[in-house]
Task: inverse folding
């Protein structure tokens, strides 16, 4: 066994702290929790936390936030809390979105290797316990449409089904590309309210989302209420938008939706051939 990975012995106060926090279900804690549990000063709490991190009994999530590695993980810990719970402690405000939320809502079977986190703050992308966390900074007007869900004793914010589809159409590059988004729209067709999606689009102020949705609905032959389809057509703005913003500006122009179809139609239906 690699001796650098073996956890070091605990002092009396270190053991007392970990036991007390674990009994209270605080697998993630802050320095103020250390002060409260040990009735110690902040400076001592920082020293104790740093020592525990060096001994590999806790993992630093961010400045002043730590994750306890439980005894059950053994001497060479590989334990981790659920990645969404960790994400919830890396930035605030936040919600789990994009490809991560598409997978959570079972709109895709693909499990991304990165956790996508929407926030109004500027946060540095980082890796925690071999999991990549990517932060997408949104304007305030786009930061809505999420709900808390329970993961163990924690509550984690995740975009609701309609906002997840809306965000995917807004930024397909954070969702595996337009081919993956097309599959998700198909899988979500009976699980989301397209009227609610349109309400979200209006609030976000980006009619390109409607253009992409309208094109996909027609191309995939998704049965949608005629009134909703009419509302979509009347809401699109002048000017040509690209179906996939990450691809070159080449392809065919679909005047009905004011959109440049710069993705091969085979790509949009590749998932159908796999099913």
Result:
């Amino acid at each position: 066994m690699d001796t650098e990975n073996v956890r070091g012995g605990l002092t009396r106060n270190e053991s007392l702290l970990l036991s007390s926090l674990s009994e209270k279900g605080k697998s993630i804690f802050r320095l103020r929790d250390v002060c409260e549990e040990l009735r110690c000063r902040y400076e001592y709490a920082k020293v104790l936390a740093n020592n525990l991190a060096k001994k590999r009994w806790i993992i630093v999530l961010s400045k002043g936030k730590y994750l306890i590695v439980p005894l059950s993980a053994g001497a060479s810990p590989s334990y981790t809390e659920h990645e969404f719970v960790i994400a919830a402690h890396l930035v605030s405000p936040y919600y789990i979105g994009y490809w991560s939320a598409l997978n959570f809502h079972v709109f895709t079977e693909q499990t991304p290797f990165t956790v996508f986190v929407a926030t109004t703050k500027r946060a540095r992308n980082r890796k925690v316990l071999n999991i990549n966390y990517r932060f997408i900074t949104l304007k305030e007007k786009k930061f809505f449409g999420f709900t808390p869900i329970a993961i163990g004793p924690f509550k984690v914010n995740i975009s609701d089904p309609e906002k997840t589809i809306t965000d995917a159409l807004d930024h397909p590059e954070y969702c595996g590309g337009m081919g993956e988004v097309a599959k998700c729209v198909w899988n979500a067709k009976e699980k989301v309210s397209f009227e609610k999606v349109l309400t979200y689009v209006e609030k976000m102020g980006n009619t390109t989302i409607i253009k992409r949705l309208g094109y996909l609905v027609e191309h995939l032959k998704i049965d949608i209420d005629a009134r909703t389809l009419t509302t979509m057509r009347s809401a699109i703005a002048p000017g040509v938008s690209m179906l996939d913003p990450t691809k070159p500006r080449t392809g065919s122009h679909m005047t009905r939706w004011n959109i440049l179809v710069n993705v091969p139609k085979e790509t949009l239906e590749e998932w159908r051939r796999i099913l």
